[in-house]
Design brief:
- The complex is a heterodimer of chains A (about 325) and B (about 350).
- Chain A is mainly alpha-helical and about 325 residues long.
- A two-stranded antiparallel ribbon of chain A has the order 1-2.
- The relative contact order of chain A is 0.12.
- Helix content of chain A is about 70%, strand content about 0%.
- Chain B is α+β, with helices and mostly antiparallel strands and about 350 residues long.
- Chain B is about 45% helix and about 10% strand.
- In chain B, the strands form 3 sheets. A 4-stranded mixed sheet of chain B has the order 1-4-6-5. In chain B, strands 8-7-9 form a 3-stranded antiparallel sheet, with no helix packed on it.
- In chain B, helix 5 runs antiparallel to helix 6.
- The longest helix of chain B has 19 residues.
- The chains are: A mainly alpha (about 325), B alpha+beta (about 350).
- The interface between A and B is large, with 87 and 83 residues.
């Protein structure tokens, strides 16, 4: 596929994972299946998804030869410095600086992973994911009791929240791995989401600095500054850094940290069809206005910005033309 | 709409009072507009600028909040603006520009930039919940409970820190009320509400933990500051039993009188468990119900288990398969007609 990067495949895989979890979750809710049966369905669908993904990957690699997708150019055009998939060596000085900055970036990411895994760093206010996952596993069913009390519901819960699949996804992971709900939700998932977030930001870096000179250095700077902003953004609820480092299991954190950076990357490259994946994934993990969530708003906004930019460009071009040129035209 | 506008305005003030990453974004956007040479990534720059303006302006911010179902607070509309991405983009362009054009040494530029970023926020400090000690203490008590009663289905009433982590530590544990009693945000996840009796139980437990006393003098629900009503230990204990509680923990700092009255109310002896006093209400003699007239006595196990009252109270008793919180219904049905006394 033209102009598709390795990061796109990774992000698409995450959205497919969410989709599979949603299918198993809905099956459990609608047909009243036991949680064990839902887990089996999830595992089977995931296996099929992985096989299909591997097949698509294999076919793409065969079609495009040994080209490194991660270094592909914006809009899929051949990068000027590359011949037959081999990147020409960059300026040694720039290469060295880029590597040095990447080392700083990796150190920052490792420090964040330690922060997440050391415990006592989670923000539980307004969240009951661990209790929900625990109740799914304990009752062997989805929303059979009120997760906060363990008692049956007296008035029920809103359907708009009942359809969200993240607690089930975490429950499936607990069931498949045998780990406790607290360990999966509080440590493992946030760590994975953090890494996925950097993958999404890497895709955005490739889109923002596509083929200009010194792109390696700029991308390295971008990634390092993003990781610094994550650290410093832990000061308030709602900031990206807070979401990823303190409550990375929440749907809003996944949307802001993973889906949106990738969505911006897709919109910059005008991969409009791929944006559907983000919109659907958000609808499965965050309460939206019947699917009209942040991802749809961002896609619409970016599309409008593309149109506006084009018009502004035409106006600028027209204003630059001299009267003689106008006459010639 | 006026309320929404007010929230938008106050939200912006709150958003910028704790940290200044929004200011960093504005500086980055200014640099990107001023310093660009070509029309590179113009749509992204246009979008970031317009959305930032929309998030700051109260009218457009209120509209964005409406779009986000009104359920989410002001800070969530900033999800639409690429704050982290645009700020990092501007700063990386600046930094890489310094390196490439050698305007001045790159290291001081990087240092200044890093200092600016640090000054705009904090380094993970606010993320620390600091409740690890509470959690460990609660987990210790709950694990001991599980060791003591491995097979029992416990329904626990305990101080807040234990209730807070109870369901997280052990999913088989049942509670008369959950964390949503004090965390209002959690009430969005269910239509269930708590009655006054359960609220009084939660308030009484907080009071007992704070003062150790048995009677809680709270402000009257009518709102009149002069009127104060007393929530008695016995009333809370009765409500707890009605709610199915078969295990009570009291903090160790309670007064001897409170301990004695709780023992009498529950009909069981207290024993020490970690930093708490444990009252285990046996299922076979949970409590005795006696009619007001004293004509008949009804023995039954605590709610949450199968209750089999005499037919004259509930014809036919519970139907098989009918388990959905019919407990509360049964007790409400008899409320006001019966007086329950603890078994001697």
């Amino acid at each position: 596929m033209k102009g598709v990067m390795v990061w796109d495949y990774l992000m698409a895989g995450i959205t497919v994972l969410v989709g599979v979890a949603e299918a198993a979750h809905l099956a459990g809710m609608i047909f009243g299946w036991s949680f064990g049966r839902c887990t089996l369905l999830f595992a089977v669908l995931l296996g099929i998804g992985c096989a299909a993904g591997a097949g698509i990957w294999f076919l793409s690699v065969r079609r495009h030869g040994a080209a490194l997708y991660s270094q592909k150019d914006l809009n899929g055009a051949a990068a000027p410095v590359r011949r037959h998939g081999d990147a020409l060596p960059q300026e040694p000085k720039e290469e060295g600086r880029g590597r040095f900055i990447y080392v700083i970036f990796i150190l920052l990411v490792i420090s964040q992973l330690i922060f997440i895994c050391m415990g006592d760093t989670d923000y539980r206010e307004g969240d009951m994911t661990v209790e929900t996952v625990g109740s799914f596993l304990q009752e062997d069913g989805i929303y059979r009791v009120n997760p906060l009390t363990g008692m049956p519901y007296t008035a029920g819960m809103p359907s708009r929240l009942k359809v969200l699949c993240l607690p089930s996804l975490y429950g499936f992971l607990c069931k498949l791995t045998g780990l406790s709900a607290a360990a999966v939700v509080r440590n493992i998932v946030p760590a994975v989401i953090l890494l996925c977030s950097y993958a999404a930001y890497r895709a955005l870096a490739c889109s923002l600095f596509p083929r200009e000179g010194g792109r390696r250095l700029r991308r390295a700077c971008f990634m390092t500054i993003v990781s610094l902003l994550m650290w410093t953004g832990t000061y308030a609820f709602g900031m990206d850094g807070f979401g990823l480092l303190v409550c990375g299991w929440r749907g809003t954190s996944i949307r802001n940290g993973v889906l949106l950076p990738w969505l911006f990357s897709l919109c910059i490259r005008r991969k409009w069809l791929w944006t559907v994946l983000c919109i659907a994934a958000e609808a499965c993990i965050v309460w939206t206005l019947y699917g009209c969530g942040t991802c749809l708003g961002v896609t619409a906004g970016m599309a409008a910005a593309h149109v506006l930019s084009k018009r502004l460009g035409r106006m600028r071009d027209a204003s630059k033309r001299t009267p003689e040129e106008e006459g010639l035209i | 709409m006026r309320e929404l506008l007010r929230n938008a305005w106050l939200g912006w003030q709150e958003y910028t009072s704790q940290g200044k990453l929004a200011c960093l974004l504005l500086a980055a956007l200014l640099f990107l507009w001023a310093g660009r040479r070509r029309r590179e990534q113009e749509p992204f720059l246009l979008y970031a600028t317009l959305l930032t303006v929309c998030c700051i302006c109260p009218v457009t911010a209120a509209l964005l909040m409406v779009y986000q179902t009104r359920f989410y607070d002001y800070e969530w509309i900033w999800s639409l603006a690429p704050l982290t991405a645009a700020a990092a983009w501007g700063m990386s362009r600046f930094l890489a520009g310094q390196w490439e054009e050698k305007k001045f040494s790159a290291l001081p530029a990087a240092g200044l930039l890093a200092a600016a970023v640090f000054l705009c926020g904090s380094l993970g400090g606010n993320g620390l919940s600091g409740d690890g000690a509470d959690r460990q203490e609660a987990a210790g008590a709950l694990n001991r409970l599980e060791e003591l009663y491995p097979e029992a289905e416990l329904c626990l009433w305990a101080p807040r820190e234990v209730m807070e982590y109870g369901r997280e530590t052990d999913a088989s544990l049942r509670l008369p009320y959950g964390r949503n009693m004090w965390d209002d945000h959690l009430n969005a996840y269910a239509y269930d509400t708590y009655d006054d009796g359960l609220k009084a139980m939660a308030g009484w437990m907080d009071w007992a933990e704070e003062t150790g006393e048995a009677d809680w003098k709270r402000q009257a629900s009518s709102g009149n500051p002069r009127k104060a009503e007393t929530v008695r230990l016995e009333d809370c204990a009765r409500k707890a039993l009605e709610s199915g509680v078969n295990c009570v923990l009291l903090p160790e700092n309670v007064l001897p009188e409170t301990l004695r009255r709780m023992e009498e109310a529950l009909g069981t002896e207290a024993r020490k468990l970690e930093n708490y006093y444990l009252f285990r209400v046996e299922e076979r003699a949970a409590f005795r119900t006696e009619s007001r007239q004293g004509a008949s006595a009804l023995y039954c196990r605590p709610p949450g288990f199968t209750v089999m009252p005499p037919g004259k109270y509930l014809a036919g008793g519970l139907q098989s398969g009918c388990t959905a919180n019919s407990i509360g219904v049964q007790y409400n049905y008899r409320a006001g007609r019966e007086r329950r006394l603890p078994e001697e």
